[in-house]
Each structure stands twice: as C-alpha cells, then as structure tokens.
Amino acid sequence: MTKELTITYTHYSSIEELTELEQRLYHAAVSARENAYAPYSEFLVGCALLLENGEIIVGNNQENAAYPSGLCAERTAIYWTSANFPNEKILKLFVIGSPKNPSKTAALAPPCGACRQSILEYESKQESAIEIYFASNSGEVCKTSSIRELLPFSFDRSFL
Ligand code: THU
Questions:
Q1: DSSP string covering the chain
Q2: Where are the domains of the chain?
Q3: 10-150 architecture in CATH?
Q4: From ligand 1's centre to the CA of 113, what distance in Å?
Q5: What does the alpha-carbon distance between residue 31 and residue 34 come to, in Å, rounded to a whole number?
Q6: Residue whose CA is closest, atom 13 of ligand 1?
Q7: What pLDDT does residue 37 have?
Q8: What contacts 134, CB < 8 A, 6 or more positions away?
C-alpha cells in the first residue's frame, strides 16, 4: 500500500507580512549573516533564535580549511544557546542563507539535514515545538510550526 505524507507551511512573499517580532528576528538573522566566516563556500548564513525569556541569540556559519570541521549557522546558534541557557525554551528559529556575491540569485534555503536533526533534538529536549522560518535575500519567507514538518519519519530519543 502506498501512503502519502503532506507537510504544512506558510509562505510570505515579503517581510512586511511578518509580525513586528518576526521582523526583529529576521533583521537579527540578516546582521548575523554579515559575520559569517565562509571563505570556502562564500555562502553566508545567519540564524536568530527567540528564547522564551525574550532574548534573541544569533549564530552564523563557521567554516574550516578541513571542511567537515566547520559548522552551520543554525547549530552554532543552538549549541551556544544550550550551553549558556540550558533551561530556556527556544520558541522560534529564523535562518537566512545566500551567496556572498549579491548578483547570484538566491533561492529560499531551508536548514540542511544535519541541522534538522539537531533542531529536532532540542525540540525533544524542551518538549515543545520550535517555529522555523527560512528566508531568501529577496524577502520571501517560509514558516513551519515545527522541525517535524521538514523532517518527517524522524529518528528521536523515543526509539532509544
Ligand atoms: N550552511 C548553513 O550554515 N546552514 C545550513 O542549513 C546549510 C548550509 C552553511 C554550511 C557551509 O558553511 C555553507 O553553508 C555552504 O554549505
């Protein structure tokens, strides 16, 4: 029997359609992207997290000459948050990634597979969903209510 899985997301064609708080998070991710260290891929990514205490934590991608030693923006932000605010829930995660060269058209870049798995870990740890937003540099945004929408058939702690 063939079955079908559907995912649900919201699409915004411009930043103005977001709430004021969501726009703050977007701007925090955009400025975090400026500090990305990505000399090898020249693909700059910024990420901003909204914590339950109202703080906004940012991260960006950090590359390395030994390529696999680098880290994505989302995990830089999430791991720092868990290290410094271990009991604070993450409510929202906003990520924006696009080539350093602005003339290269940027598509909406969602979190990579490894970041999806990491985000799932912290949803499981905090026992509540994290809203995920990803934006292109043209101002388009997609939002899901949880990383589970982007990672169906996920493997989590419940199997162990
Ligand atoms: N990257 C991220 O920071 N987040 C993702 O979800 C996808 C990829 C980074 C990793 C690498 O520094 C560059 O983008 C190109 O893959």
A1: ---------EEESSGGGS-HHHHHHHHHHHHHHHT-B-TTT-EEEEEEEEETTS-EEEEE-B--SSGGG-B-HHHHHHHHHHHH-TTPPEEEEEEEEEESSTTS-----PPPHHHHHHHHHHHHHHTS--EEEEE-TTS-EEEESSGGGTSSS---GGG-
A2: 10-150
A3: 3-Layer(aba) Sandwich (3.40)
A4: 10
A5: 5
A6: 43
A7: 98
A8: 94, 95, 96, 97, 108, 109, 110, 111, 141, 142
Q: pLDDT grade, residue 138 (50/70/90)?
A: confident
**Which of 35, 41, 47 has most ligand 1 atoms within 8 Å of its beta carbon, as the pocket-test mutant?**
41
pLDDT at 75 over 90: yes
- 74 tagged catalytic: yes
CA of 5 from ligand 1 middle (Å) equals 27
Q: Is the pTM of this model over 0.85?
A: yes
